[in-house]
Amino acid sequence: MNRIPSVSLRGGADADAAAAAAPPPDPAALARWARAFCVIRFDLERGQLVEACYPPDALAAVAGGGLDRLVAFSSFPDSMSHHLPRHRSSVHDSLFSFRVPDPSSPRRAFLYGFVFNRQRQDERLPRGGEQKSVVILSHAPYSSLFRLLLQILGPLCFDVGPSALAMVAAHVAAWPAPAPGRPMELPIGSAALRVHLPPAADDPGPPPALLPANPSVPYGLFHDADLFAAFRGLLLHLWTLWELMVVGEPVLVVAPSPAQCSEAVAGLVSLVAPLLYSVDYRPYFTIHDPDFARLNALAEGEVFPPMVLGVTNLFFLKSLKSIPNVVAVGSPNPNSTRVLPVGGQSPGNGTNGTPGKLKLDKLAINKFSPTSLLNSIKLRREGPLSLMTEHKEALWSTYAPTTKPDTSVLNRLIDAGVSPRIEESMSVVNNEILRRHFLELTTNFLAPFGPYLRTTTPSEGSSPFVDPPLLPPFHADEFVNGLAARGPGKFLSKRMRSNWLDLYRRFLEGPNFMPWFRQRRAAAEQEQQRLWRQARMNVDIEKLMSKMSELERIDSFNAVERYLLREMENSGRGNADSVAACQKLKEDLQAAFSVLPKDVQQLLLSNPKRAVLLQGGQEKAPGANGIVTQTSL
Predict the structure, then answer these.
(1) Phi and psi at residue 592, to the nearest 5°
(2) What average pLDDT does the chain have?
(3) Contacts of 225 (CB under 8 A, 6+ apart)
(4) Relative to the CA of 486, which of 224, 314, 408, 422 has its CA 20 to 30 Å away?
(5) Do you know which PANTHER family this protein is assigned to (predicted)?
(6) pLDDT, tens digit, for every residue of 176-225?
(7) Residue 330: burial class (beta carbons within 10 Å; 0-12, 13-18, 19+)
(8) Using DSSP, how many helices (H) and how many strands (E) does the chain show?
(9) Cβ(468)–Cβ(532) below 8 Å
């Protein structure tokens, strides 16, 4: 979308009257998309307070309590930004997100918060400023959708007040049910939000050996995250970060603002698509999170659990010092996220702000100088605690990476020069380049698991009325030994060092492998069942039986009957597709029966339920709606 849709609503008493007169949104329809819409105010005396919420009891009615407090504390920066312009009056808006445990869920589930925060500095106000946040709370990580919606809801709440919450909620409740993995057009006000939702958590995505043709389609979460902007100062470290995410290493992301740290965490999670990322991640983590006490209590030498935490409070550098991987991103000045110098000659190939190629020798990582060497040594010696005095984009890690940076990808990136006007469009191009590469990298990395996920179909002339073969059994040791003998393949061999096999060993032992493999395995088994069922629907039973011996025909009759009863049970549950399958299998059963010897036919007809099946259902046997649900052979 090129413009933000307008939502017509008058302010003041008229707005309240209009909201009161409108019928309330259907709670069940609204819950498909969002748990709550909130306005949270920072009170100088009482701290963070939920000023308004729709539905009114969405936070208070949660079993166990505490959700309102957790959401309130997660919806503000740790302190009023001191980087805002020191004008008599100024306004600073920002968008960020958080992820917190859902206390209402009996299992380990999470809620996603999407925040529109407004900080206003005014010398006439107490303490020189105030701030409020508008929050959308949802069980779904639909960042591309809710960020767009917040750009409507946030300013609207500041214009007309909290009554905007109910009005926007009514629009959301009128939307159709979410269609994960598909594009949707969702009406809001005078226009529509056009989004492509990420796949569902239980959607395995494309097969690991198949590279998706369209990189703009999301094959994982947070496809809209601005990778290039978030890691522009650390581009050569992206491959190390990719490995850390693949193997499930704990990572602490430090940034000056919630917007920068939440964007970076979202970018890291999106980096490994289409791999299912099973590690706990928090785009914006605060000391008020219920898990902080547990993490802060880890003993000296105790292994930090697999987590990715985005923080702005430098206190975490001391309290969570056992995290082996710390990455500092962003800039204290939100408008200064550049790696290249902006003074003097344009760093791009063009002049006067014309975009050019992003040159590697300007990244200050490949280029050697005594000063850069000393600074690098100092940065390494001081470690992440050096951020206490000055924020610098850097990566501190004890991890030895296997993957080499792909300079051919970096050389294709475009620098916008000194022109902010084209910065956003260049970022779109660069993000597409980076996403396509890491999608290809992850897909090729997962490709060796393909044989264990490969489905089969009945060979020509064979019977589809037998159980499909099992997928090949997987044993980690055999897999590693076979991979060592075959090699990593052409794509990975160019991009990985000689110790590439260690990356697979770490992946197999890490927290991401088994959930992903089980999901892919279950999907492959389901697909195989579908293919064999389709083969049964297409087979010419008379032609098939003509080539069989008498014993094989009897076995085939029993197999057809078994599958027919299974389909009839499914049709009794309201499965419309099974109705047509039942009709086809009934005809197949009668055809198989007709070629059996007379004595066998008489024996089979002695079972009254089977007799009903063979007579085309002229008599009703016990079962749902006259459907036979079981038989005795």
Answers:
(1) -65, -35
(2) 81
(3) 143, 263, 266, 267, 269, 270
(4) 408
(5) LD41638P
(6) 999 998 999 999 888 889 999 998 876 655 554 555 556 567 788 898 99
(7) buried
(8) 22, 14
(9) yes
- 90-93-98-104 Cα dihedral, nearest 10 degrees: 90
199 DSSP 8-state letter: P
DSSP string over 288-351: TSTTHHHHHTPPTTPPPPSEEEEE--TTHHHHTTT-SEEEE-S-SSTT---SS--SSS-SSSSS
- Residue 431 is encoded by which pair of tokens? 């993000």
Q: Which residue do the tokens 């299912």 mark?
A: 276
Tokens 């290249």, residue?
A: 340
Residue 393 bridge partners (DSSP):
none
Beta partners for residue 37, in sequence order: 54, 136
- Residue carrying the six token digits 């008498």: 550
What is the pLDDT, as a whole number, of residue 508? Answer: 96
Q: Going by DSSP bridges, is the β-strand pair 280-282/307-311 parallel, antiparallel, or unpaired?
A: parallel
Helix (H) or strand (E) holding 563: helix 550-572
Residues near 320 by beta carbon (within 8 Å), at least 6 away in sequence: 252, 295, 296, 304, 309
Q: What's the token pair of residue 139?
A: 């069980």
Cβ atoms of 148 and 183 within 8 Å: the answer is no
User: Within 13 A of 207's CA, how many CA atoms are on the CB side?
Assistant: 13
Alpha-carbon gap, residue 218 to 354, rounded angstroms:
31
Tokens found for residue 40: 């949270």
User: Tokens in use for 578?
Assistant: 């099974």
Answer yes or no: are the C-beta atoms of 23 and 29 closer than 8 Å. no
**For residue range 304-335, what is the model confidence (pLDDT) as tens digits?**
999 999 999 999 999 998 899 999 999 887 54
For position 66, what pLDDT does the model report?
79
- Give every CB contact of residue 416 below 8 A, 6+ residues apart in sequence: 348, 353, 355, 422, 423, 426, 427
Torsion of CA 229, 234, 238, 239, to 10 degrees: 160
Quick check: 251 and 323 in contact, CB under 8 A? yes
The pLDDT tens digits for 126-161 are 666 678 999 999 999 999 999 999 999 999 999 998
Question: How many Å apart are CA 218 and CA 454, to the nearest integer?
Answer: 23
CB 113 within 8 A of CB 74: yes
In the chain, the amino acid numbered 256 is P
pTM, two decimal places: 0.84
Angstrom distances, CA of residue 611 to CA of 583, 615, 620, 625, 632 = 16, 6, 11, 17, 12
DSSP alpha helices (H): ranges in 62-142?
67-74
CA gap 49, 77 in Å, rounded? 14
pLDDT band at 433, cuts 50/70/90? very high
Calculate the alpha carbon distances from 436 to 48, 203, 223, 271, 412 in Å: 41, 20, 11, 10, 12
Residue that the structure tokens 């005396």 belong to: 45
Residue 244 near residue 400 (C-beta atoms within 8 A): no
